[in-house]
Design a protein that fits this description.
Elements (H helix, E strand, L loop, with lengths): L1 H5 L9 H32 L1 H10 L2 E6 L6 E2 L5 E13 L7 H12 L3 H8 L11 E4 L4 H9 L7 E11 L6 H4 L2 E3 L2 H5 L11 E3 L2 H5 L1 H4 L4 E7 L5 E8 L6 E4 L3 H11 L11 E6 L6 E7 L5 H4 L4 H9 L8 H4 L9 H10 L9 E3 L2 E4 L2 E4 L7 E3 L1 H6 L3 H11 L1 H10 L21 H8 L5 H7 L10 H12 L3 E2 L5 E5 L6 E2 L7 E2 L4 H16 L16 E7 L4 H4 L14 E8 L6 E7 L10 H16 L18 H10 L1
Parallel strand pairs: 2-10
Antiparallel strand pairs: 1-8, 2-3, 3-4, 3-5, 6-7, 8-9, 10-18, 11-12, 11-23, 13-16, 14-15, 17-20, 18-19, 21-22, 22-23
Helix pairs in contact: 4-5, 11-24, 15-17, 15-18, 15-22, 17-20
């Protein structure tokens, strides 16, 4: 039937199988997709969740530390010695480096550094260090910065920004007292000596930079910024400006420091300058006016992280440029010590300054013979003549009468044999020997012949240039000892507050001022008498008091018979000179030590002192003192004799 054709139904089960197959296939696909989704979700949420969450956050908002400019170090008049200037640096954030090896290679080519050196600087960034920026170069040139900036999008995780950089101005010889800076090391972080510091922070490593770290550092600031996926800054959300460090005013006079540095230079540009140290002090308060240690180094080498080659060159240099000889160089005081021995003799009632003592050129003690530097002898000499001519025999006899312990007693009153306490690290104590010291240190009894050597500043005696300057500042003060210091005051960066370090009151040494005054006359004669060994330290219009010295490096018999230029440099004597001026109302005291000079203090050290004293009085222009006539009973002396004696002592 026709009606049955249109309503005709299909056979039961004709397409049920294909429909179920499709449903099953769809179900399998959906299950597989769900399984993949679950696995990936597990990986993202559990395995990589923390890292991705942090990465996502950093790709939107980043917190930057803003370093505080380090405080300036200035001289007593406010002239800059160390300051901070803006510099561009390049840093990497290890967690954002897609290919560290490629990044170091490309960066190395862009800034001219070895890729291995860059990788070593970053180290093994694990844990929190992965997210901390690491500086690779802290003072990019404009060309280097342009190169890095042009590759920024190809180097995710590499950032450039501006940072304060230390800069030392002009005075190379002040490197040791100013000191150096560098990145804080693991040991400093580990012992907790510097709280609130992080890896990569810059700290003072030596000198004033180290001792005044708390005042110089300032307070960090911070900035929250929005960045894109390539780390490019889009927007500043908020910012706290850093507070610069305080300004340190030193007692140093830059003009005098320059004069002292120049005085150590050789007059021949082709030859190196002298090695040694100079310290100048205001005897009225202990302020250090100049401090030179030569050879020196350029502290700017340390400002951005010193490279391995430069560091190795410095520490392997036989001239020891990193050593601050002014506070850590220890030298026999030589004949400068005779002034102390003379004070001891007068104070103890053993020495009559006017009594004549005969010097035949040698002194016999038992079976031993001790020679005077002047082989033919000085003849009959009183105290003035013995000091100005630096007669050894006179002081051999006096020293033996006093004994080493009494000599040491007075030497210590002048501040010898102990650190001064100046605001610098590495100060050495020197040594003033006694019977008890030798028994304790060497397990040996003291020998009388050792007193002979000690009486002219040889033997076991050791002093630093700073101690010598302090001792003769005490002479200048009539027996009051002021502790040397470098810090005048500290100001807030904006001048809103000023802090004065605690000062030590002057120490009354208890030395008879009449004894000091009497020896002072002899020191004046040493510089102003025609035969004085210190006559090369004379300054026009100013009466200078001083004492020459020569300290032996080896025993005399090892160099006997050799000319100066035949003796190896390392065996040549040191030259010393100490002085204060004006003699009647001293404003400056100084000590000069020239290592291995090969000649006496009168020939080498006194002229250096003269240049510094002349520079001081040219600036301060004191009224010329009346010409001082010193009657030492020697009579006229030919210039050639005076010249020879200057060269010796």
């Amino acid at each position: 039937m026709i009606g049955n054709v249109e309503g005709e139904s299909r056979l039961p089960g004709a397409d049920e199988a294909p429909s179920e197959l499709r449903i099953g296939l769809i179900a399998v696909i959906m299950l597989a997709a769900f399984a993949i989704f679950v696995v990936r979700l597990f990986q993202l949420q559990i395995v990589e969740g923390a890292d991705l969450a942090s990465r996502s956050e950093r790709n939107s908002v980043r917190t930057l530390r803003l370093e505080a400019p380090r405080g300036d170090i200035v001289d007593r008049e406010g002239r800059v010695l160390a300051t901070t200037r803006p510099a561009f640096r390049v840093r990497v954030i290890p967690s954002e480096l897609r290919s560290p090896e490629r990044a170091y290679r490309v960066l190395g080519e862009l800034i001219g550094r070895d890729k291995g050196e860059l990788a070593e600087r970053v180290g093994d960034p694990r844990g929190r260090r992965r997210f901390q920026p690491v500086s690779l170069e802290t003072d990019l040139s404009h060309l280097q910065r342009a190169r890095v900036e042009s590759h920024r999008y190809a180097l995710p995780g590499v950032v450039t920004d501006m940072t304060p950089r230390r800069h030392y101005v002009g005075v190379r010889s002040a490197a040791h007292l100013l000191g150096s800076i560098g990145e804080i090391d693991a040991e400093e972080l580990g012992r907790g000596a510097l709280p609130r510091y992080h890896p990569g922070d810059v700290v003072g490593k030596s000198g004033v930079e180290h001792r005044q770290e708390a005042h110089l550092r300032g307070k960090l600031g911070g900035r929250n910024i929005v960045v894109d996926v390539a780390g490019q800054e889009i927007e500043i959300i908020d910012e706290v400006q850093p507070v610069p460090g305080g300004r340190i005013f030193l007692t140093i006079d830059l003009d005098l420091q320059n004069a002292a540095e120049a005085a150590f230079r050789s007059e021949d540009p082709a030859t190196p300058g002298h090695r040694g140290a100079l310290v100048a002090i205001d005897p009225r308060n202990g302020e250090v006016l100049a401090m030179v240690s030569e050879p020196a180094y350029d502290p700017n080498s340390f400002a951005g992280g010193i490279d391995t080659k430069t560091w190795n060159d410095l520490i392997s240099d036989d001239s020891r440029p990193l050593q601050n000889r002014a506070v850590s160089g220890q030298y026999p005081p030589g004949s400068t010590y005779k002034a102390v021995v003379a004070v001891a003799g007068i104070s103890e009632g053993i020495l009559d300054p006017d009594e004549k003592v005969f010097c035949p050129g040698e002194y016999r003690l038992g079976r031993h013979t001790y020679r005077c530097w002047k082989r033919e002898g000085h003849g009959e000499v009183n105290l003035d003549q013995a000091v100005l001519g630096s007669c050894d025999v006179y002081f051999y006899k006096l020293g033996v009468e006093l004994g080493v312990d009494k000599i040491a007693h007075y030497a210590k009153k002048f501040g010898l044999g102990a650190p001064t306490g100046i605001e610098l690290q590495g100060e050495m104590p020197g040594l003033v020997p006694t019977r008890e010291w030798k028994e304790r240190a060497r397990g040996e009894r003291w020998l009388k012949g050792e007193t002979v050597s000690a009486s002219i500043g040889q033997g076991f005696n050791l002093t630093t240039p700073l101690q010598l300057a302090q001792a003769f500042a005490t002479f200048a003060n009539g027996g009051r000892l002021y502790r040397p210091h470098l810090i005048k005051h500290i100001e807030a960066w904006d001048g809103s507050a000023r802090e004065y370090p605690e000062r030590h009151l002057p120490v009354d040494t208890g030395i008879d001022p009449r004894a000091i005054e009497r020896v002072r006359q002899s020191l004046v004669a040493t510089v102003n008498d025609p035969q004085g060994t210190g006559r090369r330290a004379r300054v026009d219009g100013v009466v200078v008091a001083g004492k020459t010295g020569t300290s032996q490096v080896v025993r005399l018999e090892q160099t006997e018979g050799l000319k100066d230029d035949e003796i190896p440099i390392r065996y040549r004597d040191h030259a010393l000179f100490v002085a204060f001026a004006p003699a009647e109302a001293p404003e400056i005291a100084l000590a000069v030590v020239v290592e291995h000079a090969g000649k006496g203090g009168g020939a080498i050290a006194a002229p250096i002192a003269q240049k510094v004293l002349a520079a001081y009085f040219q600036k301060h222009s004191v009224k010329p003192e009346s010409e001082l006539t010193v009657n030492v009973g020697v009579g006229s002396s030919p210039e050639v004799v005076a010249q020879r004696e200057v060269d010796q002592e």
